Amino acid sequence: MKQYEATIGLETHVMQQTRTKMFCGCLRVYGADANTHVCPVCVGYPGAMPVLNRKAIELCCKAGMLLGCSINRLSRWDRKNYFYPDMAKNYQITQADDPLCLGGKLEVEVDGVTKVFDIERIHQEENAAKNIHAAGASLVDYNRAGTALMEIVSTPCMHSAEDALAYMTAIKQIMQYGGISACDQEKGEMRSDVNISVRPVGQSELGAKVEIKNMNSFAFIKEAIEYEVDRQISVLEQGGTIDQETRGYDAERGETFVQRSKEDAHDYRYFPEPDLLPLTLTEEEMEAWRSELPELPAQRRARYVEELGLPAYDAAVLTADKATSDWFEAVLPYSSKAKPISNFMMGEMQRLLTEKEITIEACKMMPEALAKLVDLIDQGVISNSAGKQVFEILFDEGGTPESIIEAKGLAQVSDDCALEQWADTAIAENPKPVEEYKAGNPASINFLMGQVMKASRGKANPGAVMQLLKQKLDG
Q1: Helix-strand-coil split of the chain, %, nearest 5
Q2: C-alpha angle 242/246/250, rounded to 5°?
Q3: Is 387 exposed, middle or buried (CB count within 10 Å of its CB: 0-12, 13-18, 19+)?
Q4: What is the pLDDT of residues 148-202, one digit of tens each?
Q5: How many whole angstroms separate alpha carbon 342 and alpha carbon 346?
Q6: Dihedral through CA 122, CA 127, CA 128, CA 133, nearest 10?
């Protein structure tokens, strides 16, 4: 029986964080009433002339720089012609032959193996409107029409759903760290067309390509790829052929379905955009943009491991989300205790963010408060369990750890007289574990320790208690 391999390429559309749209002055606003941020350019009125948004060009070039692309000093605009309600003028302004960015590579880790995926190009274009199908009618909201959109096109270099997810996760993180896009998939700010083909192992020629359009969920992309690969292999094993076509993905049924036969480039009748001049970039512009590039997630992960001594797992968790990593960064100037801070960030912080369904920006705790809390625990002022109580109050209400500890009476007791009284009582009232400890069972002291902590209502300093009990029992 023949063995088959899948080949996957991605066309990832990223909506850029510009204040206004790509070719007009309308604001880029999400969630506004339908058709309230539109103008003659957005809705394709005859004679309406596009005006270039230079901020979008900057962001596209920065994305290319972050992904190792070469930036074209001269790029051109084209019209991609198609008839559909989401593009009122019946063509999209895009870049066909001379895009802003060419080439590029993305290094990612897939199941513990480092892989390098090639990027073919990044080109700038405008977004389509949003079609709404409800109650037997089709409506169009042009608020999104004309927003700045760039398309990151990979080569057909991936061979599994895991490859594709690792690639998209890295793209998302880099775009967020670079300030290019928030990549909020629920808002449609990042979506991918997935091109899939299969071929017998050893065959050099790629199989017929099937494209799955407009996927904005990583989970659904994984499901769609796995289903489509299995479907194509099944067709070939039964002696059939794969048609080049565009398919959609039905998440409820977990399967792809035919939408239309796949268009080729000539079907779109590309031709030069007559209303926009070729785009020329200066070396001064590119140097200025290059100087503003941020530290990338991979670089930050390496720094956390090499300079802060964090485990690789911690570094990966902390850098997965830029806002979380930036918050962690804000704590570091106030404390050198990176690991305890990391533990709180990965544990209590993530738990509370999930439970309350908010972002870390909505947390009321200040970074310096977490640094102080970690110091107070390290100094033995409060216990770890009390520290978690203080953390939750800081998260919900803000304030300082010291004021919360005082108000709640959470400070540990380290007073020798009080500790000695609790220890003497525990020893006197529990002769059996005392005898077991003296007979050579060191674990028996833990019971006595528990009795002291119970008597002190958890306020006794555990380290001081253990030291005192050993002094009394070993003496």
Answers
A1: 45, 20, 35
A2: 100
A3: buried
A4: 999 999 999 999 999 999 999 999 999 999 999 999 999 999 999 999 999 999 9
A5: 6
A6: 100
pLDDT at residue 441, as a whole number: 80
* pLDDT tens, residue by residue, 329-344: 999 999 999 999 999 9
Q: How far apart are CA 83 and CA 453, in angstroms?
A: 75
Mean pLDDT over residues 455-463, rounded?
A: 71
Report the run of H or E that residue 345 belongs to, with start and end: none
Query: What own/partner pairs with CB < 8 Å and gap ≥ 24 does 386-391 have?
Result: 386/410, 386/412, 386/458, 388/348, 391/344, 391/348, 391/349, 391/365
Residue 458 has pLDDT above 70, yes or no: no
C-alpha span between 130 and 143 (Å, rounded): 8
Q: Sign (positive/negative) of CA torsion 384, 308, 170, 292?
A: positive
What token pair was written down for 454? 């119970």
Q: Is 202 left (phi over 0), alpha (psi -120 to 50) or beta?
A: left
Token pair, residue 369, equals 């408060």
Query: Contact 150/14 with Cβ under 8 angstroms?
Result: yes
Q: DSSP string of 180-238?
A: S----GGGTSEEEEEEEEEEETT--S----EEEEEE--HHHHHHHHHHHHHHHHHHHHT
> What would the pLDDT profile of 204-261 be if each residue is shown by its tens digit?
999 999 999 989 999 999 999 999 999 999 999 999 999 999 999 999 999 999 987 7
* Closest listed residue to residue 147, CA positions, set 19, 310, 9, 277: 19
Cα-based angle 412, 414, 415 (whole degrees, multiple of 5)? 130
Indicate the residue type of 183.
C
Contacts of 388 (CB under 8 A, 6+ apart): 348
Domain boundaries, the chain: 4-285, 295-408, 416-474
Q: What is the CATH number of domain 416-474?
A: 1.10.10.410
Euclidean distance between CA atoms 177 and 192, whole angstroms: 20
- Sort strands 210-215 and 245-250 into parallel, antiparallel or unpaired: parallel
Question: What residues have CB less than 8 Å from 245, skipping those under 6 apart?
Answer: 210, 211, 258, 259, 260, 261, 262
